[in-house]
Amino acid sequence: MSIGEADLRRTGRPRDPACDQAILRATREVFAEEGYAGVSVEGIAARAGVGKATIYRRYSTKAHLVVEAIRDGAAVEDFAPDTGDLRADLLTMMQPLASALRGENAKLLTTFAMERMRNPELAEEFNRSIIGRKREHVRQLVAGAAARGELRPGADVDLIAEALPAFLWHHAVYNLPITDDLLDRVLDLALR
Amino acid sequence: MSIGEADLRRTGRPRDPACDQAILRATREVFAEEGYAGVSVEGIAARAGVGKATIYRRYSTKAHLVVEAIRDGAAVEDFAPDTGDLRADLLTMMQPLASALRGENAKLLTTFAMERMRNPELAEEFNRSIIGRKREHVRQLVAGAAARGELRPGADVDLIAEALPAFLWHHAVYNLPITDDLLDRVLDLALR
Amino acid sequence: MSIGEADLRRTGRPRDPACDQAILRATREVFAEEGYAGVSVEGIAARAGVGKATIYRRYSTKAHLVVEAIRDGAAVEDFAPDTGDLRADLLTMMQPLASALRGENAKLLTTFAMERMRNPELAEEFNRSIIGRKREHVRQLVAGAAARGELRPGADVDLIAEALPAFLWHHAVYNLPITDDLLDRVLDLALR
Amino acid sequence: MSIGEADLRRTGRPRDPACDQAILRATREVFAEEGYAGVSVEGIAARAGVGKATIYRRYSTKAHLVVEAIRDGAAVEDFAPDTGDLRADLLTMMQPLASALRGENAKLLTTFAMERMRNPELAEEFNRSIIGRKREHVRQLVAGAAARGELRPGADVDLIAEALPAFLWHHAVYNLPITDDLLDRVLDLALR
DNA sequence: ACATAAGCGAGACGGTACGTCTCGTCTTCTG
DNA sequence: CAGAAGACGAGACGTACCGTCTCGCTTATGT
Question: Which of B104, C184, D104, D156 is the most buried (most CB within 10 A)?
């Protein structure tokens, strides 16, 4: 709740939003150029024109900083359409993820996916900002289509629902090209 | 050349094979639990009851050490069958990966797969020891089957070849169960 | 001038005198127990229940703050008697220092005396508030007595004038007891 | 015992004595020029051409480093003569302290004297390297002389024994000159 | 048989980054 | 305006590793 948050810190000098942006921006730039190991908090501070304490006041850890920087720059939009046209709905839903995994933030996203495996609190955040309600919604779309007879009888609803993300992440993680028609081809394979 | 190598060091005290194992074992254990960043050469040396120089004599770098440790312990067997039965051949080929992703090395493998994204030195080794020649061989099996008319006309050879690893890794990374019939279901989806 | 000062600040909320005392008191306590390095402006603010700005509005610097705190709490009274009885006059003058070095402020004083060696800003203030005009006055008393023939011929005026403070500080610094008759014994030694 | 010490560290690469000297030397130089607050471990490391760890391996703390540096460069020689000539013996004993307090190390010594007041383990070291057996020995010399009738009857043995250090430290601490004849004058005052 | 050459455990070395703490300044809100 | 709160740039603190480098010792070979 914004009210609750405001209550927590209604006194003292407020944090400078310009610092927030300078820090996250510098972190993303260095991360993209040099990778995780190339990020040093000291270097980020210098590049952002900021004191180290100003960073540590926001992020307790280098890992935390990097993850938040990525999240800030790589959040994936989350639609939940249900037009009755399964193929179209799935395309609409997964297009943002495909774009993100293809763009300059691909490395950020896959790194984020990784970090979440060891850091449980990140797993939750990963769910919120990357997966969102997609997984469950996709399953419902597919199940609805199956119920309508839009799919062949005995179709594997769970597997079909998984197909798009599985292939997209597989391509991203293996540096295979995420071409414009990849989603079409996956849907061709999965939906018949 | 083994002869050349042997010539290079035919004198002096030979390296202790027990050290090799102690080092690689300790490295694997720490890596699986703490990830790449959690591995410290000093810690490995202590855990293996070995001097740091004994490690650096074998591996020039922490990255090198970790790569070799994983390769030594998590290499996935690499069959290249071609019986003419596509489904059976694919099952034979992917079974080792499925087992590996299900067994005690699952954490090691997924950590390796993910960690290689931020450490390019790991990436190449991952290709060599985990992927090996599988990718190309699977593609050839599927292409052969398509040529024989075993698949429906216009089947997406590349995508079919990718399906098993894509779903297996997706399950592993999202902690979904890798059940005994998962490969069957994926093959059902992909081959018809 | 108090009139001029009052003119400068006849508007707005007046400074809270309770803050002055709380700040100085907290500073003295911490300084006596932990020394100059142990004093942190942030800590003083917290201990005094005061904001940092409230301190810096009064004292431009940590050194300034500490100096004022000590001066406020440990100033040694400064008599300048000249009754013609050298021994009595010296006793009158040094009694306050002896008391101060024996009382609860002893630690404060010795710490101040020592700390001033590494912090030149403290040195000047120490001269002003602890030594004051005592040194010169004592010398004049002794010189006067010598001129009157109250001392043996050829008496070392400078050394006699120094004797009381030298022994008092030596006892204080070495934690030797500063007994009631110490001044008498020192005067016995010095004046005959 | 040197044997015991040797046992403690008979393995591994031995510490480089050149580092010891470079570190202590740099520390003394900076301390003399800038005072305690001006010493930074990082700066000492740079000036000595040494890594920070090489300093912290030897001295757990900045304070520890500074004190050892001073001790290494400012130890006062400790004679214990007893020729039967009180005045000569006292001169022989206190000359080294006078020299030290007059020389380039005066600031080091007085700062050391101060630091010992808050750091109990330093008090012991101060006793060992600066005071040594002087205090007790001086008292015995004076008591012996009194017993021999070399002093006037009723002489204040304790105070006489204290006189030289008291005046010497007083002069040092107050930046009064420690002239060549100061000891003579103090002895004149104290011994008659 | 014994000298040579290398392996080994231990740990010091010059660096670099970490995350913490304080300094003195600044910015906001409340009384 | 004063005061409480606390953010800000700067930079030192003490810790932990990295990859390199001695030490003194042990262990095979090759003459």
Answer: D156
Touch between chain C and chain D (3+ CB pairs, < 8 Å)? yes
Q: How confident is the prediction along chain D (192 residues), in pLDDT tens digits per residue?
A: 343 444 456 788 999 999 999 999 999 999 887 877 889 999 999 999 999 999 999 999 998 898 899 888 877 788 889 999 999 999 999 999 999 898 777 877 877 777 777 666 667 777 777 787 888 999 999 999 999 999 999 899 999 999 999 999 999 888 889 998 999 999 999 997
Residue numbers in B 7-36, CB below 7 Å of strand E: 9, 11-16, 19
Superfamily of domain covering C75-190 = Tetracycline Repressor, domain 2 (1.10.357.10)
To the nearest whole Å, the CA of A10 is away from the closest chain B CA by 38
Task: Determine if strand E comes within 7 Å of the CB of D21.
Answer: no
Quote the CA–CA distance of C54 and B188 in Å, as a whole number. 76
Nucleotide at minimal C1' distance from the D61 CA: F14
- Contact in structure between B57 and B67 (CB atoms under 8 Å): no
DSSP structure class, residue C76: P
Cβ of residue C82 closer than 8 Å to a chain D Cβ = no
Give chain E positions with protein CB within 7 A.
4-31
* Nucleotide E17, nearest residue via CA and C1': A40
C151: left (phi over 0), alpha (psi -120 to 50) or beta: beta
- At C112-122, the pLDDT tens digits run 787 777 666 67
Q: Domain D3-65 adopts which CATH fold? A: Arc Repressor Mutant, subunit A (1.10.10)
Smallest Cα distance from C10 to chain D, Å? 40
Alpha-carbon C91 to chain mean position: 17
D142 contacts in chain C (CB < 8 Å): none
Tokens read off for D118: 């808050």
Nearest CA in chain C to D182: C159
D40 touches chain C (CB under 8 A): no
Every domain of chain B and the residues it spans: 3-65, 75-190
Q: What is the 3-state secondary structure (H, E, C) of chain B?
A: CHHHHHHHCCCCCCCCHHHHHHHHHHHHHHHHHHHHHHCCHHHHHHHHCCCHHHHHCCCCCHHHHHHHHHHHHHCCCCCCCCCCCHHHHHHHHHHHHHHHHHCCCHHHHHHHHHHCCCCHHHHHHHHHHHHCCHHHHHHHHHHHHHHCCCCCCCCCHHHHHHHHHHHHHHHHHCCCCCCCCHHHHHHHHHHC
Cβ contact B166–A165 (<8 Å): no
Q: Tell me how far apart the alpha carbons of residues B74 and B100 are, in angstroms, rounded to a whole number.
A: 8
| Residues in chain D, total | 192
